[in-house]
Amino acid sequence: MRQFLDFEKPIAELEGKIEELRRTTDAGGIDVAEEVSKLRDKAHKLLLATYAKLTPWQKAQIARHSERPHASDYIKGLIEDFLPLAGDRAFADDLAVTGGMGRFRGRAVMVIGTERGHDTESRVKHNFGMARPEGYRKARRLMELAGRFGLPILSFVDTAGAFPGIEAEARGQAEAIARSIEAGLDAPVPFIATIIGEGGSGGAIALAAADRILMLEHSIYSVISPEGCASILWRDAAQAATAAEALRLTAEDLRKLALVDAVVAEPLGGAHRDPAAMLAAVSRQIWDSLEPLLALDGATLRARRREKFLDMGRAGVV
């Protein structure tokens, strides 16, 4: 059964009726094809109307949808001959960060992603996509390895942020994030980052200090979560919808502010409704972004990347 969000309840009711009628037909009942067709048309129009006027808070809910394709899905769907690489060579292997070498459209690449998990067991295993210092040190190691062997870097970001536990702080969380950002900025190879769900705080930037930053239409990217912002400003997490409006965290807002380079359109109803179409769209956009960068040398890439990030805040519409 598909999971529906709160604002999708009218759509859920219509699709529920369609499913009931289909079961009636399958059980040998009367032919209800005409009625099903009418309801499908009505549900499609309602879906169009609903998704044409989404609020930032509703987009945040879609970005966190449990059925949305995760980093592991993009790696499985887009990367051939994937060879996972584990560990930070210092402490442990953090499963919130996945990565390794493979081929994207025939070209050898290094892939890094934050993985949330798909069910309770896998979410616990991957710590809900919230990396500890060893996760960011693994990302740094893979970026440096990519530079050494001339492999373009592709990252897939989907995290609420870095893990905020005491043990993470004790092992140098802030330093690990900073070093990962430094490695991204210093990489002498093309680097394409894609925000596929939630891009939260420094934990997201650690894997997104890239030449080109792509963002899915219903993903979010922000210095803090709406709930965290609301708790700080109003001491009330229930004000999350208000905070989401103020944070300007949607793909549309961030493209206007020149903080991301391109927005990848999602299938109607979100990426989870048609994962295959979403993967195909992301593949095309990554290749279109990567291809022009392949002709540039390492020094040019580093210089342009540095200027790109220094220019943030100077350009765009405020």
List keywords for this structure.
318 residues; alpha/beta; 2-enoyl-CoA Hydratase, Chain A, domain 1; 8-stranded mixed sheet; 8 strands; acetyl-CoA carboxylase activity
Query: CATH superfamily of the largest domain, called what?
Result: 2-enoyl-CoA Hydratase, Chain A, domain 1
CATH topology of the largest domain: 2-enoyl-CoA Hydratase, Chain A, domain 1
CATH architecture of the largest domain: Alpha-Beta Complex
SSE pattern: HHHHEEEHHEHHEHEEHHHEHH
Number of strands: 8
Using only C-alpha atoms, the radius of gyration works out to 21 Å
- What does the largest sheet look like? 8 strands, mixed
Structural class: alpha/beta
Taken together, the total number of domains comes to 2
- The poorly predicted ranges are none
Percent helix range: 40-55%
What top-tier CATH class of the largest domain fits best?
Answer: Alpha Beta
Shape: globular
* Overall average residue pLDDT: 93
Termini gap: 42 Å
Per DSSP, what share of the residues sits in E-state strands of 2 or more residues? 15-25%
Query: How many helices?
Result: 14
Domain CoA carboxyltransferase C-terminal: 31-292
Organism: Falsiroseomonas oleicola
GO molecular function, one term: acetyl-CoA carboxylase activity
Subcellular location: Cytoplasm
In short:
The chain is an alpha/beta fold and 318 residues long. The chain contains 14 helices and eight strands. 48% of the residues lie in helices and 16% in strands.
